[in-house]
Specification:
single chain, 409 residues, three-stranded antiparallel beta sheet, 19 helices, elongated, disordered N terminus
């Protein structure tokens, strides 16, 4: 018998009868009647191809088949193909519109599948659709998946500071498996390291450094050095680089303005610079250079363009350009003397606040006398900060019962 005489979607067969037959077929396929994976996949694909000419009449059945095909493709780890199948589902058709909660689940699943293949551009499009429906469900698992997608989208968009905070928040959720929480915490550390240097990143680094779980991570060494404002060495950066994903190793181009600012050859023929680099080449390179520049400001009161360039492995003009940008953006306190080719660093409250408050000390009122001597002020501030940190340690030890109260005579 040919397909012309039995196919339920041919016009001689009533639409109601055709829907009943197709619905029963979909039910049998989904119920596991066909156990072989390849055979089941072929049946679903052939059925979808047959229904395609009259998809408007069999919309509900087609949607069910697409969900099944997406499950089969996800099992095969064909992430992008599974996402494309789900994109073809009619969520807002006039005949049968899915509830907002179901749309939200579908969008989140599409985002998750696209991110598995690192298609962050298209994933962000569907994430924005999901965000508009985020209040449609109270299901905790779905909300957790949405928050994880939030963190990953920020990560792929190179909003590393935002991603680090979202990852760290998720690493405390008890409903997530312990191993997965550890991986999420590791992602938080990685994003914090890659974030732009400055007071905001210092706060995130402080929070992660004081998290007892961080000491078990392979990235703890670079986390501790960044938090303590130690200069990072090439070997340490190379080890950390091996743990990064492709989007975290993306190459970056120097802007035209920065290129113009750094083309001036200010080398002294008698003392040529050790590097010809005009700026960072990758996301990681930029993060490390900015951190080392910020760390240098804690060591030196001032430094020449050439000295900073030698420290950062940049040409003097490139080092000046980087320092200028950080000062302009408020991430570095200092001033530039272009006549003497010097960068002067200023001690500021931001870094003390970033690290002191994170330790649980709270707001410490620090007043300084108007002595008119900037280095005396800085020395006084360092003494106050050290005393405040010692007091914080004593309070912590007393809270743990490790310090006995002195006997009263």
């Amino acid at each position: 018998m040919s397909s012309q005489t039995w196919s339920p979607i041919q016009r001689p067969v009533g639409l109601v009868t055709g829907r009943q037959v197709i619905s029963e077929l979909v039910k049998l396929i989904g119920g596991g009647v066909v156990t072989d994976h390849d055979t089941r996949k072929r049946i679903v694909e052939d059925t979808l191809a047959t229904l395609q000419p009259r998809i408007a009449s069999y919309e509900e059945q087609v949607n069910s088949l697409r969900f099944q095909l997406a499950d089969l493709l996800e099992t095969e780890e064909e992430w992008s193909e599974a996402a494309r199948v789900l994109m073809g589902i009619s969520l807002d058709s006039g005949s049968r519109s899915l509830p907002d909660e179901e749309k939200f689940r579908v969008y989140i699943r599409i985002v998750r599948l696209l991110l598995e293949d690192e298609d962050s551009v298209q994933a962000e499009t569907y994430y924005n659709r999901a965000a508009s429906l985020s209040n449609s469900t109270n299901d905790k698992e779905t909300q957790l998946q949405f928050k994880l997608c939030q963190a990953r989208i920020s990560d792929y968009a190179r909003k590393f500071l935002e991603a680090a905070m979202r990852y760290h928040e998720l690493s405390w959720v008890a409903e997530i498996d312990e191993e997965e929480r550890k991986e999420i915490l590791s992602n938080a550390v990685t994003c914090a390291v890659l974030a732009p240097a400055g007071p905001n990143r210092s706060r995130v680094l402080a929070s992660l450094y004081r998290d007892e779980r961080s000491s078990d991570l392979p990235t703890y060494n670079i986390l501790s050095k960044m938090f303590l404002d130690h200069i990072l060495r090439p070997a340490e950066v190379k080890t950390f680089e091996q743990k990064l994903r492709p989007h975290q190793l993306a190459r970056i181009a120097i802007s035209s303005n920065d290129r113009l600012a750094s083309v001036v050859d200010d080398d002294d023929p008698s003392e040529p610079s050790t590097s010809t680099r005009r700026g960072p080449s990758t996301v990681l390179d930029r993060a490390v250079l900015e951190h080392n520049l910020l760390a240098s400001s804690k060591i030196y009161n001032n430094i020449t363009f050439r000295g900073l360039g030698a420290l950062l492995d940049l040409a003097p003009s490139g080092a000046e350009t980087m320092a200028r940008k950080m000062i302009e953006q408020g991430r570095l306190k200092g001033s530039i003397d272009q006549v003497d080719k010097l960068i002067w660093f200023e001690g500021g409250r931001e870094d003390d606040d970033a690290q002191g408050k994170a330790g649980g000390l709270g707001d410490v009122e620090q007043t300084s006398e108007a002595t008119g001597a900037p280095f005396t002020k800085r020395w006084d501030m360092q003494i106050r900060t050290t005393a405040a940190n010692v007091e914080s340690i004593v309070q912590h030890l007393a809270f743990k019962g490790l310090i006995l109260a002195p006997a009263v005579a």
